Amino acid sequence: MQRSTAVIYTLFFAGALAFVIANGGPKGSGAASAPADAGADADADAGSPAAASAAGDGDAGSDAGGDGLLQESGPEQAARSDAGITLLSGEAPPGLPAEAPKKVRFGVVLVQYRGAQGATQNARSKDAALALARELAEVAKTDFKAAIGKGDKGSTDDLGYIPRGVLEPAPEYELFSLPKGGVSGPVDTPRGFWIARRIE
Fold it and tell me: How far apart are the C-alpha atoms of 85 and 127, rounded to whole Å?
């Protein structure tokens, strides 16, 4: 993957994280908040790309989606109210086990759909995106780089380190529950479906 593409995605991710943090997390109940024990690790990770991204300027990813950004409103926005809050089953994610790491290094395959942050007006429907995400999750289990190549712009094999308490509950649960080298199934996030791979 070209380094410039990875840099662009990191800037987009930084903008999305800054937006979520600046706006107090996802709307409604169940919004993610940093656990009390994450402070020392989060401070120690301040130099990592993901942590630096979270502390960056909220405008960093403003033009990552181009001119065709879809303003969320109407039925699409209502349908997205649980993105990142619930698992695909519709259930709230359980708490992380005691042995879950305090930070992980990860990569992600992104599959966007109409209404997701940064998605264009002509993006696929949520159902079509889920079908593609399921296919790519199967590919990712044996060849993560091939899945990245079939994912949307912003997919990357290494986003760097991220501490607990930054992501929404569902992607955080999926990512921090993975063993090293493990690949998740599709998880809905405000940015679209993610298939995550834990590197460390």
Answer: 18
The three state secondary structure string of the chain is: CCHHHHHHHHHHHHHHHHHHHHCCCCCCCCCCCCCHHHHHHHHHCCCCHHHHHHHCCCCCCCCCCHHHECCCCHHHHHHCCCCCCCCCCCCCCCCCCCCCCCEEEEEEEEECCCCCCCCECCCCCHHHHHHHHHHHHHHHHHCHHHHHHHCCCCCEEEEEEEECCCCCHHHHHHHHCCCCCCECCCEEECCEEEEEEECC
Query: Does the pLDDT value for residue 21 go beyond 90?
Result: no
Q: For residue range 117-170, what is the model confidence (pLDDT) as tens digits?
A: 999 999 999 999 999 999 999 999 999 999 999 999 999 999 999 999 999 999
For residues 85, 71, 192, 173, the Cα torsion angle rounded to the nearest 10 degrees is -20
Identify the bridge partners of residue 93 per DSSP, sorted by sequence position: none
- Tell which residue, 137, 24, 16, has the closest CA to residue 88: 137
**Angle at the Cα of 116 (from 112 to 186), degrees rounded to 5?**
50
Q: Model pTM greater than 0.70?
A: no
Cβ atoms of residues 197 and 174 within 8 Å = no
Token pair for residue 147?
Answer: 């899945």
Tens of pLDDT, residues 29-84: 343 433 434 433 434 444 444 433 333 333 333 333 333 333 334 444 434 467 99
